Amino acid sequence: MKLQFVTSGLRTTTQDLGRPGHTHIGVPMGGALDRSAMRFANQLVGNALAAPVLEVTLSGPHLRCLEAGRVALIGSGFDLLLNGEPQPALLPTSVNPGDALIIKSSGNGCRAYLSVSGEWHAKRWLGSASALRIGSHELVPGAVWTRGDILETRDRSVEPWPSALLPPQPPSNIIKVSPGPEYEWLDDHGQSQLLSKRILVIDPSNRVGLRTDTQIQLREDKRDTEMVSSGVQPGTVQLTHAGQAIILMRDGQTIGGYPRVLQCVSQSLDQLAQIKAGDELMLSLTDS
Amino acid sequence: MTLSLAFKMVIRPFGDSALLIDIDAGSTDASSDIVMALNAQLSQQRTRGITQTTPSYNSLLVCFEPEQVQHSDLQAKIHAIADTINIEDISKGNQWSLPACFDGSYALDCVALETELSQDWQSIVDCFCAAEYRVHAVGFLPGFTYLGNLPDALHCYRLRDPRATVPASSIAIAGTQAGIYPFDSPGGWRIIGRLPFTVFQAQADQPALFQVNDRIRFEAVTPEVFKELEQRPIASLIKQATRR
Fold first, then answer.
1. Mapped to the 3 state alphabet, what secondary structure does A95-125 carry?
2. Which among A40, A111, A164, A171 has the fewest CB atoms less than 10 Å away?
């Protein structure tokens, strides 16, 4: 099928499951921030679960259909309008040439995923079609969509599979965490300030990391300790010298020099994808 | 001949799908040797379930698929590998001799460092260029190169307020480390010079020019030569700068 971008939305990118295996040269794994949404959207249109999708951030694009096919939008807080008509959630939508598709935000969601039926021609870098922006530099320029661009997929006559996956969990701002390598650098007071409290997420928060407004002191004997730079991963909660907790996201740095006080459980990374500046979250220790 | 290595190793879970290995072999260089040897063996043996590893100074982060391998099994496997590693497992890096310009227009912290280090700029540059640096890690940003062996006389503080933009290819020092910025990016290290080429080319077969365990020397050139080198194709510069 073929779609043209009438508008691009705030930032609409191609994302898949990312590029594991390159952290030793500083390239993050990346990929769709909300993987369960990505997989479910792909399943609805009959694509491979790991096929690329469009990741929409805060405000969605307007698209014009040039060739028929199926699309599916997954992401709470976003609606898919076909020629002005809202489409039912959790189902694919068939589109025909001339149709107008609008991905509309209702204001409380952060990211949505649009699957497009057929095989993508996406250019891959280090095995992945995912966009990656470092500072102002786009490492995969073709994965960032702008007005006028045309997205074309090669049709495959595969009917959508019977539902094998469960729909994504409803969004939750309670993030399960386990202690990180420097958790003991916090005293009881520091731990209680960080855990089971509402924490405000502030700007700039993006695919690299979520910043928070915390001011948490390390244990007194650790305050002047300079850490030797060491590996970090998506979901690592670092504490800056100023006491700000930063939760690293999938495009985040691969090595860090700040204490890694907590690590979000893998399952919660999808939830973090839906949290934006201005939202509150709560970090809660897992039982295990 | 195999030389067995003496070191302390601590393996800790780091979330549900990673292990953090901390190595203490007495010195940063010796610990780095073990990290590199261990990392080489892990990748050579294609250990089941491992998705990626991140070596950095005295630690190795090992990410894995919990569906493929259990924490405890992987931990046992790493211990078994650690028992057998030897000096020959450490990859021989490239040796580089890199032209760089340390002129005031590229050395953004020249004046501040003269005061802080109580030396004039020429002796700071001479001191920096006299040493050979070892690549201890590549990361933070794609291609950001962490260098060890900074001479004691050049140890300095980070900027209190990081710069919003450090120009790409800047050479920087901070604390006991030196580093090379691959892209224009924010940064708090002290900028002392610049390379006339990029150190990260996304489309190249090996996007990151420098790898862990490479050795780097810097050779000061004038701004005129620097500007001329900037115009040259990167392939010819790299060929000239490297030897095995």
1. ECCCCEEEEEECCCCCEEEEEECCEECCCCE
2. A164
Would you say residue B207 lies in a domain? yes
Cis peptide before A141 (omega within 30 of 0): no
Nearest chain B residue (CA) to A226: B175
Q: Whole-angstrom Cα distance, residue B54 to residue A25?
A: 8
- Residue in this structure with the two tokens 């994302």, named with its chain if needed: A15
Lookup result for tokens 């307007």? A62
Domain encompassing residue B27: 8-89
Residues in A touching B144 (Cβ below 8 Å): 26, 255
pLDDT, tens digit (0-9, with 9 covering 90-100), for B160-186: 778 989 999 999 999 889 999 999 988
Q: For residue B135, what are the contacts with CB-CB under 8 A and spacing of at least 6? A: B93, B145, B146, B147, B210, B211, B212, B213, B214, B215, B216
ipTM over 0.85: yes
Residue ending a domain, among B37, B62, B89, is: B89
Over the stretch A19-70, which tens digit does the pLDDT of each residue have? 999 999 999 999 999 999 999 999 999 999 999 999 999 999 999 999 999 9
Sign, CA dihedral A122-A124-A130-A136, equals: negative
Q: What whole-number distance in Å separates Cα of residue A234 and Cα of residue A270?
A: 11
> Are A132 and A142 contacting, i.e. CB atoms less than 8 angstroms apart?
no
Q: How far apart are CA A260 and CA A222, in angstroms?
A: 13
Write down the pTM of the prediction. Answer: 0.94
> Searching chain B, which residue's CA lies closest to the CA of residue A261?
B14
Q: What is the DSSP letter of B139?
A: -
Give dist(CA A280, CA B10) in Å, integer: 36
Q: Which residue, B89, B118, B134, sits at the end of a domain?
A: B89
For the domain that residue B79 is a member of, what is the CATH number? 3.30.1360.40
Question: Hey, is the C-beta of B52 within 8 angstroms of any chain A C-beta?
Answer: yes
Same domain, B57 and B108: no
B58 touches chain A (CB under 8 A): yes
